[in-house]
């Protein structure tokens, strides 16, 4: 195709094109428009609406930042992002609650790790009270534990509701969100980026890739993945039946298992009063593999060819096998919950929609522990933004816009 013919296909020219209408993409577009009124911003989303994947399928927790390495982006941006998100919710009438959470040790061999978490909380500037079983019983009467940490700053919110407000405000500020539009290719050039989509072509001064589960695929279009790839992990949830929701007052977490890079099944009271239990973590067989039967042949081949994944499996096979067993056996899932709340029974739980975590793995087969944002000539790429990215989203967006401004954009 000649250059002139391609120009005829261009449907829109914009200053910034954001790929992905999850909370990171929408927050970035929102922040950019706030800092640069009058600029043109277009958000591209392959789904029919916003927050269809990670954002809309998580447990809705406003994380405190207690778990993350001091000085890391996760620690810094979770702490400041939680405050920014609470302010945003207050300003826009979005239902939320700062209810606090308990991290519970149920065995003596967990106490050293619990105490280390309290030290980390202090290093991250968080209030975290070490409490005994009697104080725990006041907060969560049905919870079993010998000691716990009470973190009062943790909260709950609907991130779908946050995205609805962000979308509305983007439109009000002159930006636009285009749904059911898949990005097929990106051609980088000196003057900008030409984006081929399922609904036409777009010429943009800058592309910001916030594609979540497919962020590595988008980055590869301009040679910016750096060898990182997304490995999808499905998190499966149950919901406690309404008549048994009284068993949980707020948020109840186990002490994290240091042999596995996930937090373990926990109990979360949602803003609508329901209580979710989970998630576990099993390898998904599709990028959007929300059920065992959701299988993509291409994804299976990618898993098989991923040497880093085999290395990870050898390292965590025992813990991973337990996660798979809890996925296949409701009774095993219930037993994990009973460590925290002994009164929970199998009949108390109903299955509810799963989520898939977009976890990045580097070229050496290591799971990326921190957020990761890379840059290319006319593009920026959010290559790793799992939890607590929703909590930190407004601050992640702020950092992205600062990086854009530093580029002269």
Characterize the structure shown.
The protein is α+β, with helices and mostly antiparallel strands. The chain is built from eleven helices and 20 strands. Helices cover 34% and strands 27% of the residues. Helix 2 packs parallel to helix 6, helix 3 packs across helix 11 and helix 9 crosses helix 10. The chain has a domain of 211 residues: FAD/NAD(P)-binding domain, CATH 3.50.50.60. Strands 5, 6, 7, 13, 14, 15, 16, 17 and 18 form a nine-stranded mixed β-sheet that branches. Strands 1, 2, 9, 10, 11, 12, 19 and 20 form an eight-stranded mixed β-sheet that branches. Helix 2 links the parallel strand 1 and strand 2. The longest helix is centred in the C-terminal third of the chain and has 22 residues.
């Amino acid at each position: 195709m000649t250059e002139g013919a391609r120009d005829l296909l261009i449907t829109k020219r914009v200053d910034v094109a954001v790929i992905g209408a999850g909370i990171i993409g929408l927050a970035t577009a929102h922040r950019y428009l706030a800092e640069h009124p009058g600029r043109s911003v277009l958000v591209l989303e392959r789904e029919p609406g916003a927050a269809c994947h990670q954002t809309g399928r998580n447990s809705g927790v406003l994380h405190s930042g207690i778990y993350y390495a001091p000085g890391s982006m996760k620690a810094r941006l979770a702490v400041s992002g939680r405050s920014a998100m609470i302010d945003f919710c207050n300003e826009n009438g979005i239902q939320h609650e700062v209810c606090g959470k308990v991290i519970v040790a149920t065995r003596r061999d967990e106490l050293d790790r619990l105490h280390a978490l309290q030290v980390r909380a202090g290093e991250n500037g968080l209030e975290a009270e070490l409490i005994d079983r009697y104080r725990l019983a006041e907060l969560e009467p049905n919870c079993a534990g010998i000691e716990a940490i009470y973190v009062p700053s943790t909260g709950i919110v609907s991130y779908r509701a946050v995205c609805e407000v962000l979308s509305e405000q983007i439109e009000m500020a002159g930006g636009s969100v285009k749904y059911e539009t898949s990005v097929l290719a990106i051609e980088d050039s000196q003057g900008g980026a030409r984006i081929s989509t399922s609904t036409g072509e777009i010429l943009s001064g800058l592309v910001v890739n916030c594609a979540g589960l497919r962020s590595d695929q988008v980055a590869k279009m301009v040679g910016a993945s750096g060898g990182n790839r997304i490995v999808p992990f499905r998190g499966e949830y149950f919901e406690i039946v309404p008549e048994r929701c009284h068993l949980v007052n707020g948020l109840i977490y186990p002490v994290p298992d240091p042999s596995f890079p996930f937090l373990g099944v926990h109990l979360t009271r949602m803003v609508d009063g329901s209580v979710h239990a989970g998630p576990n973590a099993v390898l998904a067989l599709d990028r959007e593999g929300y059920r065992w039967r959701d299988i993509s042949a291409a994804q299976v081949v990618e898993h098989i060819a991923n040497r880093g994944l085999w290395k990870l499996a050898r390292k965590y096979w025992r813990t991973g096998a337990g996660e798979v067993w809890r996925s296949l056996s409701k009774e095993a899932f219930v037993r994990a919950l009973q460590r925290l709340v002994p009164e929970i029974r199998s009949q108390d739980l109903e299955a509810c929609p799963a989520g898939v975590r977009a976890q990045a793995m580097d070229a050496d087969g290591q799971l990326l522990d921190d957020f990761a944002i890379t840059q290319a000539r006319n593009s920026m790429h959010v290559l790793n933004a799992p939890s607590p990215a929703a909590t930190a989203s407004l601050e992640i967006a702020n950092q992205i816009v600062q990086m854009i401004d530093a580029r002269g954009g």
